[in-house]
Design goal:
Elements lengths: L8 H13 L10 E5 L5 E6 L31 H8 L9 E6 L3 H10 L3 E6 L6 H12 L3 E4 L12
Parallel strand pairs: 3-4, 4-5
Antiparallel strand pairs: 1-2, 1-3
Length: 160
């Protein structure tokens, strides 16, 4: 008899998004993303961090400063954007994006332009911000569906 306690596709891909988020060195918010084909094949992954070649020791991780240039915001690449930029295949048309946090408006633009058709997110803690409101408005206009991940309560434990 085959096992019956295996995880679902959604649990698998959201688990990978959360595992990817664990690579982030951001002290406040760790975001991970996993892009998946219509055939449930992993196409790409990403997490929030600095661009390749930009030392995370030489740039700020702060959320506030005397100027914007003293904060992380002009320098950090978001997890969703990193997953899109990390993709080395042909097209992301029709793909699904699993992401730990709801995408901001800049990531939504990239999601739409890349042809991703569905976003499954877990956390929407910035729902009341202009960025996320704009993100949802653009995705609806572009017919990119989004839905909250249905937490199953399973615990995924990995010993490395």
């Amino acid at each position: 008899m085959k096992r019956e306690d295996y995880i679902s596709w959604d649990e698998y891909f959201m688990g990978i998004a959360f595992l990817s988020a664990m690579r982030s060195k951001d002290p406040n918010t760790q975001v991970g993303a996993c892009i998946v084909s219509q055939q449930n094949k992993i196409l790409s992954m990403g997490y929030n961090g600095f661009p390749i070649g930009v030392s995370d020791d030489d740039f700020p991780w702060e959320r506030a400063g005397d100027s914007e240039l003293e904060t992380k915001y002009p320098f950090v690449v978001h997890g969703e954007m990193n997953a899109i930029l990390n993709f080395r295949g042909g097209s992301l048309e029709g793909a699904k994006l699993y992401v730990t946090h709801f995408p901001c408006c800049e990531c939504a633009k990239a999601i739409i332009q890349a042809g991703i058709s569905k976003v499954i997110y877990c956390i929407d803690k910035y729902a009341d911000t202009a960025s996320v409101i704009a993100s949802k408005r653009m995705m609806r206009a572009a017919h990119v569906s989004y839905e909250a991940y249905r937490i199953t309560g399973k615990t995924l434990t990995i010993n490395v």
